[in-house]
Amino acid sequence: MIAALHIEIIFYCATFGEISAKKWDPVAVTRNNLLGFTHALNAVRSYGKIKKFIYVSSEEVYGKALGKKSELLNSRPENVVSASESGAEAMLSAYFTSYRLPLLVARLSQIVFGGVMNENNLLKKLLEG
After folding, report:
1. Of 119, 125, 123, which Cα lies nearest the Cα of 58?
2. Which CATH number characterizes residue 80's domain?
3. Which of 68, 78, 93, 108 has the largest CB neighbor count within 10 A?
4. How many domains, in total, are found in the chain?
5. Among candidates 95, 116, 106, which has minimal Cα distance to 48?
Protein backbone atom coordinates (compact mmCIF):
# COMPACT_ATOMS: atom_id res chain seq x y z
CA MET A 1 0.00 0.00 0.00
CA ILE A 2 2.83 2.42 0.76
CA ALA A 3 4.31 1.81 -2.70
CA ALA A 4 0.99 2.35 -4.48
CA LEU A 5 0.61 5.76 -2.81
CA HIS A 6 4.25 6.82 -3.40
CA ILE A 7 4.57 7.88 0.24
CA GLU A 8 7.83 9.58 1.24
CA ILE A 9 7.18 10.80 4.80
CA ILE A 10 5.19 9.07 7.55
CA PHE A 11 4.08 10.58 10.86
CA TYR A 12 3.17 7.59 13.02
CA CYS A 13 0.64 8.60 15.69
CA ALA A 14 -1.37 5.37 15.93
CA THR A 15 -1.28 4.54 19.64
CA PHE A 16 -3.87 4.12 22.32
CA GLY A 17 -3.70 7.31 24.35
CA GLU A 18 -4.12 7.62 28.09
CA ILE A 19 -7.90 8.05 27.93
CA SER A 20 -8.62 5.12 25.64
CA ALA A 21 -6.08 2.90 27.41
CA LYS A 22 -8.18 2.95 30.57
CA LYS A 23 -10.91 1.18 28.61
CA TRP A 24 -8.57 -1.60 27.45
CA ASP A 25 -6.47 -4.22 29.15
CA PRO A 26 -2.67 -3.89 29.23
CA VAL A 27 -2.19 -6.71 26.70
CA ALA A 28 -4.45 -4.98 24.15
CA VAL A 29 -2.63 -1.67 24.66
CA THR A 30 0.76 -3.35 24.22
CA ARG A 31 -0.39 -5.33 21.20
CA ASN A 32 -1.69 -2.19 19.50
CA ASN A 33 1.09 0.21 20.47
CA LEU A 34 4.15 -2.03 20.15
CA LEU A 35 3.25 -4.86 17.78
CA GLY A 36 1.30 -2.55 15.46
CA PHE A 37 4.24 -0.17 15.44
CA THR A 38 6.65 -2.99 14.58
CA HIS A 39 4.44 -3.98 11.63
CA ALA A 40 4.60 -0.37 10.41
CA LEU A 41 8.40 -0.32 10.71
CA ASN A 42 8.61 -3.57 8.79
CA ALA A 43 6.43 -2.14 6.01
CA VAL A 44 8.76 0.88 5.82
CA ARG A 45 11.76 -1.44 5.66
CA SER A 46 10.16 -3.55 2.91
CA TYR A 47 9.20 -0.49 0.85
CA GLY A 48 12.66 1.03 1.09
CA LYS A 49 11.80 4.47 -0.33
CA ILE A 50 10.67 6.39 2.76
CA LYS A 51 12.62 9.62 3.27
CA LYS A 52 11.49 10.11 6.90
CA PHE A 53 9.50 8.06 9.39
CA ILE A 54 8.58 10.14 12.45
CA TYR A 55 7.25 8.35 15.51
CA VAL A 56 5.10 10.62 17.67
CA SER A 57 5.79 9.67 21.29
CA SER A 58 5.30 11.74 24.45
CA GLU A 59 7.26 13.08 27.37
CA GLU A 60 5.45 10.50 29.51
CA VAL A 61 8.26 8.04 28.69
CA TYR A 62 10.40 10.02 31.17
CA GLY A 63 8.04 9.42 34.07
CA LYS A 64 8.37 11.91 36.89
CA ALA A 65 11.86 13.11 36.02
CA LEU A 66 13.22 15.74 38.36
CA GLY A 67 14.40 18.95 36.78
CA LYS A 68 14.55 19.72 33.09
CA LYS A 69 13.67 16.88 30.74
CA SER A 70 16.13 16.05 27.99
CA GLU A 71 16.46 13.46 25.24
CA LEU A 72 19.49 12.19 27.15
CA LEU A 73 17.39 11.03 30.12
CA ASN A 74 16.62 7.34 30.50
CA SER A 75 12.99 6.44 30.06
CA ARG A 76 11.09 5.55 33.25
CA PRO A 77 7.51 4.91 32.18
CA GLU A 78 4.91 4.78 34.95
CA ASN A 79 1.94 3.27 33.12
CA VAL A 80 1.18 0.80 30.35
CA VAL A 81 0.78 3.46 27.65
CA SER A 82 4.10 5.17 28.35
CA ALA A 83 5.80 1.76 28.70
CA SER A 84 4.53 0.78 25.25
CA GLU A 85 5.72 4.13 23.85
CA SER A 86 9.14 3.54 25.38
CA GLY A 87 9.16 0.03 23.91
CA ALA A 88 8.27 1.46 20.50
CA GLU A 89 11.17 3.91 20.80
CA ALA A 90 13.48 0.97 21.57
CA MET A 91 12.15 -0.90 18.52
CA LEU A 92 12.69 2.22 16.40
CA SER A 93 16.29 2.38 17.61
CA ALA A 94 16.80 -1.29 16.73
CA TYR A 95 15.41 -0.79 13.21
CA PHE A 96 17.59 2.30 12.76
CA THR A 97 20.70 0.40 13.81
CA SER A 98 19.87 -2.81 11.94
CA TYR A 99 18.45 -1.41 8.70
CA ARG A 100 19.70 2.21 8.58
CA LEU A 101 16.19 3.55 8.03
CA PRO A 102 15.54 7.34 8.24
CA LEU A 103 13.73 7.24 11.58
CA LEU A 104 13.02 10.01 14.10
CA VAL A 105 11.20 10.33 17.44
CA ALA A 106 9.13 13.39 18.39
CA ARG A 107 8.35 13.41 22.11
CA LEU A 108 5.46 15.82 22.47
CA SER A 109 5.07 17.65 25.76
CA GLN A 110 1.91 18.34 27.69
CA ILE A 111 1.92 21.85 26.22
CA VAL A 112 1.06 20.27 22.88
CA PHE A 113 -0.69 17.14 24.10
CA GLY A 114 -2.62 18.71 26.97
CA GLY A 115 -1.79 15.97 29.46
CA VAL A 116 -4.62 13.59 28.63
CA MET A 117 -5.86 14.97 25.30
CA ASN A 118 -8.70 16.98 26.81
CA GLU A 119 -10.63 19.69 24.97
CA ASN A 120 -8.13 22.39 26.03
CA ASN A 121 -4.99 20.94 24.44
CA LEU A 122 -3.12 22.70 21.66
CA LEU A 123 -3.04 19.73 19.28
CA LYS A 124 -6.82 19.34 19.37
CA LYS A 125 -7.29 23.07 18.77
CA LEU A 126 -4.87 23.05 15.82
CA LEU A 127 -6.54 20.04 14.25
CA GLU A 128 -10.00 21.58 14.58
CA GLY A 129 -8.84 24.93 13.17
Report:
1. 123
2. 3.40.50.720
3. 108
4. 1
5. 95
